[in-house]
Hints:
InterPro entries: ADH-like_C, ADH-like_N, ER, GroES-like_sf, NAD(P)-bd_dom_sf, Zinc-ADH_QOR/CCCR. The chain has about 325 residues and is an alpha/beta fold. Helix content is about 25%, strand content about 25%. The protein has two domains: about 1-125 and about 295-325, Quinone Oxidoreductase, Chain A, domain 1 (Alpha-Beta Complex), CATH 3.90.180; about 130-270, NAD(P)-binding Rossmann-like Domain (Rossmann fold). Strands 3, 5, 6, 7, 8, 15 and 16 form a seven-stranded mixed beta sheet that branches. The chain has a six-stranded parallel beta sheet with strand order 11-10-9-12-13-14. Strands 2-1-4 form a three-stranded antiparallel beta sheet, with no helix packed on it.
Amino acid sequence: xxxxxxxxxxxxxxVLRIEEVPDPAPGPGELVVDVAAIGLNRAESMFRRGRYxxxxxxxxxxxxxxSGTVSALGDGVTRFAVGDRVSxxxxxSMNDYTVYADRALVxxxxxxxxxxxxxxxxxxxxxxxxxxxxxxxxxxxxLRAGDHVLITAATxxxxxxxxxxxxxxxxxxxxxxxSSSKAQPLLDAGAAHVVATEEEDLVARVLExxxxxxxxxxxxxxxGPGVADLAKVTATGGILTIHGLLSGQPTIxxxxxxxxxxxxxxxxxxxxYDEERLRRAGAFVGAGLRSGDFRPQxxxxxxxxxTIVEAHTYLESNAQVGKIVVTP
Length: 328
């Protein structure tokens, strides 16, 4: 039997339960991973609450990202062998597959090799943040050396990865956090500047940093009404990319100032569902890992599936700087 996290109603972390189910059996194009570590993501909190980009079908499980060892292969899976060290990346619907479990059934196309030199915890923490940063900023955004990029909610795992991606291509990352108490960790992570949005005027500070020009790129995880100020600091012809909906509020195009900018949304799935795009992204992230430019920042590790309620409560506290990981 396999222990897995399930929930039968939407709501607070307390709706999560551990259930025992039969061990998964892979079908064509699938494989089973004996899970060593699970990376938590905001998407899973939103899915649990019924506020995600797709409707939650109850009863449901959770989890996009984990590391572990391949224990069974379905027909047609030739890229991996039993015993291989791997990471699972978000490339499926949580209505179809989940990884909060001892053993996870996943599509083989959403699996990447994990080097022997990478720990299980890092293997569960690295892929989603850096794939989002690469895909949203470099592949679709065209971020170049010399550009300025404003990164909101920068203490999140994606925000920290975006800082590293910007530095790797020679751009200047400007990070935001609500409080200056998190400024030093962001500077330590490579941010060139930090704006505390509850203590400073975002528009005035960013325009000061950029000499009045504004930033060529905005990488926004919050959306909602704050987009109006983000548009004011976007340079003429710049790109405002929304990759998250943390505000939970409606987002409109800031047409009152008729800004000359591109405003677009980005989701990781456009890349992880495309084998060729995922291959290119994996090569970029892998090169950054080998060079030492990319290092997953893990805020806290919770031990045991029994800590999943506590881990989700911490996830929603906004106290973390970096990734939260659970080891089954």
